[in-house]
Specification:
Pfam families: Na_Ala_symp. Keywords: Cell inner membrane, Cell membrane, Membrane, Symport, Transmembrane, Transmembrane helix, Transport. By secondary structure, this protein is mainly alpha-helical. It contains 22 helices and 4 strands. It has a two-stranded antiparallel sheet with strand order 1-2. A hairpin with a 5-residue loop joins strand 1 (about 115-120) and strand 2 (about 125).
């Protein structure tokens, strides 16, 4: 099984995808005139603007929902894996992917808002499958993406998160993986059977708490070792370009693993973030596009960097060469994963590290599983627009919970390999789609900036901008609701001619 998975990944994660991800991020950064720099203040302001409605969630809830997908085991175990197989220089390339990926995240999230629609329950749904069909008119392509995403997020990716939860709990508390798997599945079922609103409420409370707590502990460790910061930064940057002794031979691996784990962690271009973006109640698509751009920064520049600095500053890592030989071996016998971060925190805070990382990993990974369920559910909803099989949602819940159990008891290598297949398939399909369908998102950004320059709170009129098939926006403006239960609802304005 491992050989088959590795063979498939050899094709999916070939050099063309690595270069495509970097190239597309640079391209969209140039096309948007580096909005990730120009609009940072606006991104932060928009995070806390807007309200939810009977149909959609607030901008902050959408941010929390997307962050629950972005901030996961990749921020702890993924960073450790990148350092093991790419050296400390892989961290630099994760930063590059995040910076450039912010432009990609804007485009895909704005497109999700432009082409969103309401499902049979009156809730907003959107994502790559929807904008591929409506924007490109390629239903067959949209179906391929939808099916691939259901398989990836419903079957392949949850196992990675579950594996990290189980291994982290076993390392910290000695609890067997089968026991932790059962506990996770029970809690998961209680939430996903409650619907989208319950998922959004859970993530908006847990995600900010877990991210800030994790960054705070990392900050303490960094402050206690502040004198080593220049050396650590020099090691990361120097290794990224093969200028540090011992790491020159794995320069290509530093780029490959940095890009691969960067995409896995921040998900820019992968096509997962747009699903949460489409669920937001906003007056203009660019608003949620900018919010989602900032979520990439939170994920990689803050949380991933926190992990990387803890690991490198305490020397709690190993580095393997191309042939499997040890280039750096500071944690003999420790497998790449949560164990690195646990050892790093434990070295500074004895008796605390193992427990803290296990708890952090649980929340990171569990909320990511919730996000994966929502993404898979949205694509099942897309499929159900044509086949109308309500029982598919129930089957999805059972399959996802089975995947969690399977991933918990399997080896980390197999779990990550299956996850990489899922991420790679979605990335290939979505990046090609947004390259073909970039114009509406760029038009929306220009329109937003023009209205802001006039001192207006931007609203979106696709007819005026020449954007077709944006049915939700043509039929009426998004309802304005003051509370999360839809108690004060102005309704939808009269239809335009």
């Amino acid at each position: 099984m491992n050989e088959l998975v590795n063979a498939i990944n050899g094709y999916i994660w070939s050099l063309p995808l690595i270069y495509l991800c970097l190239g597309v991020g640079l391209y969209f950064s140039l096309r948007t005139r580096f909005l990730q720099v120009r609009h940072i203040k606006e991104m932060v302001r928009l995070m806390f603007q807007g309200n939810s409605s009977a149909a959609g969630i607030s901008s902050f809830q959408a941010l929390a929902l997307s962050l629950s997908g972005r901030v996961g085991t990749g921020n702890i175990a993924g960073v450790a894996t990148a350092i093991t197989f790419g050296g400390p220089g892989a961290v630099f390339w994760m930063w590059v992917v995040a910076f450039l990926g912010a432009g990609t995240a804007f485009v895909e999230s704005a497109l999700a808002q432009i082409y969103k629609e309401k499902d049979d329950n009156g809730l907003y749904r959107g994502g790559p499958a929807f904008y591929i069909e409506k924007g490109l008119g390629m239903k067959w392509y949209a179906w391929i993406f939808a099916i691939s995403t259901v398989l990836a997020c419903g079957m392949l990716l949850p196992g990675v998160q579950a594996n990290s939860i189980a291994s982290g709990i076993e390392n910290a508390f000695g609890i067997p993986t089968t026991v932790s798997a059962a506990g996770v599945v029970i809690l998961l079922g209680m939430i996903i059977f409650g619907g989208v609103k319950r998922i959004a409420h859970f993530t908006q409370i847990v995600v900010p708490f877990m991210a800030l707590g994790y960054i705070l502990v990392a900050f303490v460790i960094i402050v206690l070792n502040i004198g080593q910061i220049p050396e650590v930064v020099s090691l990361i940057v120097g290794s990224a370009f093969g200028m540090k002794a011992g790491f020159g031979a794995i320069l290509g691996l530093a780029i490959e693993w940095g890009v691969k784990r960067g995409i896995y962690s921040n998900e820019a271009g992968q096509g997962t973030g747009p699903h949460a973006a489409a669920a937001a109640e906003v007056s203009h698509p660019a608003k949620q596009g900018l919010v989602q751009s900032f979520s990439v920064y939170i994920d990689t520049l803050f949380v991933c960097s926190a992990t990387a600095f803890m690991i490198i500053i305490t020397g709690a890592y190993n580095v393997m060469g191309k042939a499997g030989e040890a280039i750096v071996e500071k944690l003999p016998g420790v497998e790449a994963g949560p164990g690195y971060t646990q050892a790093a925190v434990e070295s500074v805070m004895p008796g605390f590290g193992g427990v803290f990382v296990a708890v952090a990993l649980f929340f990171f990974a569990f909320t990511t599983i919730l996000a994966y369920y929502y993404i898979a559910e949205t694509n099942v909803a897309y499929i159900n627009r044509k086949v109308h099989r309500p029982w598919l949602m129930f089957v999805l819940k059972l399959v996802l919970m089975a995947s969690v159990v399977y991933g918990s008891v399997k080896t980390a290598g197999l779990a990550w390999g299956l996850g990489d297949i899922g991420v790679g398939l979605m990335a290939w399909l979505n990046i090609v789609a947004i390259l073909l369908l970039q114009k509406p998102a760029l038009i929306a950004l220009k329109d937003y900036e023009a209205q802001k320059a006039e001192g207006l709170d931007p609203t979106f009129d696709p007819v005026k901008l020449g954007i077709k098939n944006a049915d939700h926006w043509v039929k009426g403006k998004p309802s304005r609701v003051a509370d999360e239960d839809g108690a004060i609802n102005s309704g939808v304005q009269a239809e335009r001619s």
